[in-house]
């Protein structure tokens, strides 16, 4: 899911979804689709065009498109940017569900607090190289800012470095 969604200006929300289904030969299970649309707060926006949607709504539509594609590997770049608290929670639950079902879920993000809530493993990168791999099960039960403390110790961003 890209950080800035590219949507067709002349297609409504539901037309984007139906186009993706046709292009990817996705079998339609409308009850699941309507559930996802409702959970992400777009049920009343099905006929809206992209220019009528807020940035957060565009991201929600892009998320629905990614989920609807039927992929087994999901790559997300800053997936929580622009989402309201309700959509943030829904996305967190959806990502956890995807991972629990055996799908690959890779997130690229800076929000360590949100990442700590959902990740199984975190890779710290500097200059595109992995400098630390963290098994989040080993940090469970630690303070809410444990991941931030680990990350700052790795990259040298603690207050003692200023």
TrEMBL record:
The keyword Nucleotide-binding applies. The keyword Cell membrane does not apply. One of its GO terms (molecular function) is ATP binding. Keywords: ATP-binding, Nucleotide-binding, Transport. Gene3D superfamilies: P-loop containing nucleotide triphosphate hydrolases. Residues 50-107 form the ATPase AAA-type core domain. It comes from the Bacteria. This is ATPase AAA-type core domain-containing protein. It holds the Pfam family AAA_21.
């Amino acid at each position: 899911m890209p950080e800035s969604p590219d949507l067709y200006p002349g297609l409504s929300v539901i037309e984007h979804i139906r186009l993706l289904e046709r292009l990817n030969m996705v079998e339609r299970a409308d009850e699941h689709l309507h559930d996802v649309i409702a959970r992400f707060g777009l049920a009343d926006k099905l006929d809206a065009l992209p220019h009528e949607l807020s940035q957060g709504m565009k991201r929600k539509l892009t998320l629905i498109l990614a989920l609807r594609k039927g992929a087994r590997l999901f790559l997300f770049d800053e997936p929580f940017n622009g989402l309201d608290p309700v959509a943030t929670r829904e996305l967190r639950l959806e990502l956890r569900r995807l991972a629990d079902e055996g799908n690959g879920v890779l997130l690229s993000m800076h929000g360590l607090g949100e990442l700590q809530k959902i990740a199984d493993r975190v890779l710290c990168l500097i200059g595109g190289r992995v400098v630390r791999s963290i098994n989040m099960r080993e940090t469970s039960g630690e303070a809410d800012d444990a991941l931030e403390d680990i990350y700052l110790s790795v990259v040298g961003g603690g207050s003692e470095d200023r």
